[in-house]
Amino acid sequence: MSAGEARLSVDLDALAANFRALEAEAPASEVAPVVKADGYGLGAGPAALRLWAEGARRFFVARVGEGEQLRHVLGPHRAAEIYVLDGAPAGSMPRIAAANLIPVLNTLEQAEEASAFSGRKNRLPAALHIDTGLNRLGLRVEEAEALARAPERLAGLELGLVMSHLACGPNPDHPMNRRQLEAFSAAAALFPDARRSLANSAGIFLGPDYHFDVVRPGITLYGGGPRERHDPRIATVATLEAQILQVRTVPAGESVGYDATFTAHETTRVAIAPLGHADGILRTLGGKGSAWFEGQRRAYLGCVSMDLVALDVTGCEAARPGAWIELIGPNALVDEVAEDAGTISYELLVRLSTRAQRVYIGETG
């Protein structure tokens, strides 16, 4: 790697450690990783291969295309169950069946189309999503009740899982958590032969009442805290670093960056690093965020531009071209960087572009 470049290191050993930590948190449940959005921006293929090696046998994706790609990566010898959270959009059942995917059915129309495609002699696996208050995807409870009263509408399917999704899991004191738990418990009982799943990352940490048969962690696998802040039980997976391109001295009274949003009040030493909003460093970090260099935080000065950031390295003689700065990692924690940017770790990770060189640490499996 030449001077003035950037790299994203993805620690698969840390990913595996987070998987084991979640197994310990929900010991009576199966941990089924969510690898949608290209493994939360860190690479669904390497993540899934390592998680398979750690014992994961069920995975969740959002789109049919993601499921097809994951099936290809896992190959014929890793017979994972891959659930598609979008369900079976109109006309998608041939693709779902060809890739041996499991649709998470969200509407009565999806259930009927999937059942008709499958036929009574060749029952295909399916899951059912019952909405308990989030009001995104899923059947309303009364629709699930109607479906349970008319099981012939699912005659072509092997219903193996019933699930719902928490709206307020990161806030353990929110009363909606308990309301959803009670609604899901009652609705899932309508399908007694199916396994049950309610808890996402945050839900796992609400306690065993929320665990049921299968838990579906996402962000906590990839290093984000379950309550949208750093949790010491969760290991850092992603480290984004860049080499300093140039160090310059800015006299008092001069500005740095577009729109002159920062003006030096005294002589300031400034390091320029080759990462910007094209790489996933959100523009909102300008003037608010910081990176880590030589044992302390170094503030962003002025706007984050498309390709470059400016950092205050006043008094730091180690700042020179080629030195590495940590923008996200074990010292610049992803949840804290996200908070500075006015967002959450999910968005920060999935926005990381492929321009920085990717390095995977540890075996994929």
Total E-strand runs: 19
The coarse overall form would be elongated
CA distance, first residue to last residue = 26 Å
User: Which CATH class of the largest domain applies here?
Assistant: Alpha Beta
CATH topology of the largest domain: TIM Barrel
Radius of gyration: 23 Å
If classified by CATH, what would the architecture of the largest domain be? Answer: Alpha-Beta Barrel
Category from helices, strands and their pairing? alpha/beta
Oligomer: single chain
Count the DSSP helices.
11
Order of helices and strands: EHEHHEHEHEHEHEHEHEEEEEEEEEEHHE
User: What about the largest sheet?
Assistant: 6 strands, parallel
Q: Quickly count the domains.
A: 2
Report the uncertain regions: none
How big a fraction of the residues is strand? 15-25%
Instruction: Please give the order of strands in the largest beta sheet.
Output: 3-4-5-6-7-8
Structure notes:
- The chain is of the alpha/beta class and 365 residues long.
- Helix content is 27%, strand content 22%.
- It contains 11 helices and 19 strands.
- It has helices at 12-25, 36-40, 44-53, 64-74, 93-98, 108-118, 141-149, 175-188, 201-204, 334-341, 345-350; strands spanning 6-11, 30-31, 58-61, 81-84, 102-105, 124-129, 157-163, 195-197, 214-215, 238-243, 246-250, 255-256, 262-263, 268-273, 290-293, 296-299, 309-312, 324-328, 357-361.
- The strands form 6 sheets. Strands 3-4-5-6-7-8 form a 6-stranded parallel sheet, covered by helices on one side. A 4-stranded mixed sheet has the order 18-10-1-19.
- Helix 1 packs across helix 3.
- The protein is elongated and about 75 Å long.
- The mean pLDDT is 95.
